[in-house]
Write a sequence for this structure.
C-alpha cells in the first residue's frame, strides 16, 4: 500500500546531496521537523520547519548529547496507524505522525581512522574525540523508523537520497510498502555496521580480543563479480582493495584473480622481509610456480619463468621492483592474467597496455591483516596470520650450510609456506627449480618436485630442499640426495627425526631444523 509522505523528521550530520530531496518533499507539501543545525539548513532552502524543541518542550542539552530522545519524537515514529489504542494516545498527547525519517550517524569510523592516522604520525590519540562520535539518538531514530516500516520510511545514508528522490517524483510524494521495507533493510544494515565498528574498537582493550565470544565482521563496500570460481556460481567481493593496489588497466578483476592476488601479495611480503634484492614470482591457483631473486628485474623474470614455463601460462605475476622497458618486453611474450608491481616505466606501461584485457596493478606497501578467516560447516575458522619464516636455525646435519645454501634455504622455506601441503620446494642460486604441492604423502611431494626440475632440465646438484612439515622418515632425504641435493630445511619434531639427522651426518649434508611448521590447506 502506498503512503503519502506528509511529516518528515530531518536530523543529519552531513548535508551534502540532500537539497534535491528536500526540494521534492517541499514541493509535494511535506512538513518538516528538524534539530538545530539541520533546521537552519532547511530554512535556508525556504522550508517551513518546526524545531523538535517545540514538540518535546525541552531544549537540546548536555552539549547536544540529548536532542531527540523524547516520547514526543519516538511516539510519532513508532505509533501504529491501524491501532486504535495508539491513535487514541497520539490524539491525547497531540503528537504528529512522522512518515519519513532522514537521519545519518555521527562519523565514528572516520574519526577513529583520523585519530589513528594522527597517532601514527606522532600526535596523541584523542579517545575523547572518538567516543563523542558514538551516536545515540540517531541510531535510535533509525531503528525505530525501520521497525515501523509499515507506516514509516527511513533514510539512513546519503547514498539513498537520489533513489528516494526519484521514487517520490515518480509517485507524487508516495512510497509503497515494499519500498519502505527496502529502506528499512538498508537502515538496519547501516546501524549494524556502525555498532560493529564501535564494538571492534572497544574489543581492542579487552582480554578476549582478538578471539571474542561472538564472531562479528562488517565489511563494506560490496563489489559485484562476474561469477565465482566457476561461471555457474554467483559471487561478490566485500572489502576495500585500495590500500593494496591501484588498477592501471585491464578487465574487471575476477573471483579467481582475487584469490591469486591475495596469495601473490602474501608471498611478496614474506620475500621482502627475508632480504633485499629484486624478486619476481609467478602464482597459479594460489600456488607458487616460479620464484627468483636477481640483481635486475629482467634477470629475475627470466629465472622465475624458467623454473616452470608451462605453469606460468595464464598466471599472476608479481615483482617488488619497477617494471622497466626491458622487463616489460620479456613479460609481454607470454599470456598472463595480472601483473603487480610498485611502479612501471612509461614505456613499459604503454607496451603492456597493448593487450586491453591484461590487468596491470600498481602495488602499495601495506601491512597484511593480522588474522585470517576460513568458512567451514556453516561456521568460521579464525587464526593469526602465519608471519614467521623460522623460529630457530638449528644446524644438525653433517656440516653447516654454506652462505649460498643458507640464502637458498631461507628462500625455499618461504616458498614452501606458500604452497599447498604436503609441500616441497627445491631452490638453487636464488631460483625455484622444482616444487611438489598438494600431495597426500611427503615422499610423493619430493618425487613431484624432482620430476618438475628434471622436466625443465634444471641441474639438481648443489640444490637445497625445503619441507613445510617434518620428514616422518629419512626416505625423502635419501631420494633427494640421490639427485644431488645437498642441503635441507624442515621443522623437525618427528619421533624419527634422528633417522634423517644421522643420514645427513653420515653423508656430509647440511640439515636445518626450524621448529616452525607451515601447513597450508
Amino acid at each position: 500500500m502506498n503512503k503519502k509522505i506528509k511529516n518528515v523528521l530531518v536530523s543529519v550530520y552531513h548535508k551534502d546531496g540532500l537539497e534535491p530531496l528536500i526540494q521534492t518533499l517541499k514541493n509535494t507539501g511535506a512538513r518538516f521537523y528538524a534539530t538545530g543545525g539541520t533546521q537552519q539548513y532547511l530554512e535556508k532552502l525556504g522550508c517551513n520547519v518546526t524545531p523538535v524543541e517545540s514538540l518535546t518542550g525541552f531544549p537540546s542539552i548536555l552539549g547536544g548529547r540529548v536532542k531527540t530522545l523524547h516520547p514526543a519524537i519516538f511516539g510519532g515514529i513508532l505509533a501504529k496507524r491501524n491501532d486504535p489504542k495508539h491513535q487514541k494516545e497520539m490524539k491525547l498527547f497531540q503528537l504528529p505522525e512522522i512518515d519519513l525519517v532522514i537521519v545519518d550517524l555521527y562519523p565514528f569510523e572516520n574519526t577513529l581512522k583520523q585519530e589513528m592516522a594522527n597517532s601514527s604520525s606522532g600526535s596523541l590519540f584523542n579517545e575523547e574525540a572518538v567516543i563523542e562520535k558514538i551516536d545515540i539518538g540517531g541510531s535510535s531514530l533509525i531503528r525505530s523508523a525501520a521497525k515501523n516500516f509499515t507506516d514509516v520510511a527511513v533514510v539512513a545514508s546519503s547514498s539513498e537520497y537520489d533513489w528516494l528522490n526519484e521514487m517520490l517524483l515518480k509517485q507524487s510524494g508516495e512510497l509503497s510498502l515494499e519500498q519502505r521495507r527496502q529502506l528499512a533493510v538498508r537502515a538496519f544494515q547501516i546501524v549494524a555496521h556502525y555498532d560493529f565498528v564501535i564494538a571492534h574498537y572497544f574489543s581492542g582493550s579487552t582480554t578476549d580480543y582478538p578471539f571474542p565470544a561472538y564472531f562479528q565482521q562488517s565489511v563494506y563496500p560490496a563489489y559485484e563479480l562476474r561469477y565465482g570460481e566457476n561461471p555457474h556460481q554467483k559471487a561478490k567481493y566485500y572489502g576495500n582493495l585500495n590500500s593494496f593496489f591501484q588498477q592501471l588497466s585491464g578487465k574487471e578483476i575476477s573471483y579467481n584473480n582475487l584469490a591469486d592476488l591475495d596469495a601473490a601479495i602474501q608471498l611478496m611480503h614474506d620475500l621482502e622481509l627475508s632480504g633485499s634484492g629484486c624478486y619476481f614470482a609467478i602464482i597459479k591457483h594460489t600456488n607458487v610456480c616460479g620464484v627468483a631473486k636477481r640483481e635486475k628485474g629482467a634477470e629475475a623474470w627470466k629465472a622465475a619463468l624458467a623454473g616452470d614455463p608451462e605453469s606460468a601460462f595464464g598466471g599472476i605475476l608479481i615483482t617488488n621492483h619497477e617494471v622497466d622497458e626491458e622487463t616489460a618486453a620479456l613479460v609481454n611474450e607470454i599470456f598472463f592474467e595480472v601483473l603487480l608491481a610498485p611502479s612501471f616505466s612509461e614505456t613499459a606501461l604503454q607496451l603492456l597496455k597493448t593487450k586491453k584485457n591484461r590487468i596491470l596493478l600498481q602495488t602499495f606497501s601495506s601491512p597484511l591483516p593480522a588474522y585470517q578467516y576460513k568458512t567451514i560447516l556453516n561456521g568460521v575458522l579464525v587464526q593469526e596470520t602465519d608471519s614467521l619464516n623460522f623460529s630457530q636455525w638449528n644446524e644438525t646435519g653433517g656440516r653447516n650450510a654454506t652462505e649460498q645454501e643458507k640464502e637458498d634455504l631461507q628462500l625455499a622455506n618461504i616458498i614452501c609456506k606458500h604452497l599447498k601441503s604436503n609441500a616441497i620446494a627445491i631452490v638453487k642460486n636464488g631460483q625455484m627449480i622444482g616444487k611438489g604441492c598438494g600431495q597426500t604423502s611427503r615422499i610423493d611431494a619430493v618425487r613431484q618436485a624432482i620430476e618438475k626440475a628434471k622436466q625443465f632440465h634444471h641441474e639438481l646438484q648443489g640444490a637445497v630442499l625445503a619441507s613445510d612439515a617434518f620428514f616422518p622418515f629419512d626416505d625423502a632425504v635419501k631420494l633427494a640426495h640421490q639427485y644431488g641435493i645437498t642441503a635441507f630445511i624442515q621443522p623437525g619434531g618427528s619421533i624419527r627425526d634422528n633417522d634423517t639427522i644421522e643420514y645427513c651426518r653420515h653423508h656430509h649434508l647440511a640439515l636445518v631444523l626450524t621448529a616452525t611448521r607451515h601447513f597450508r590447506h
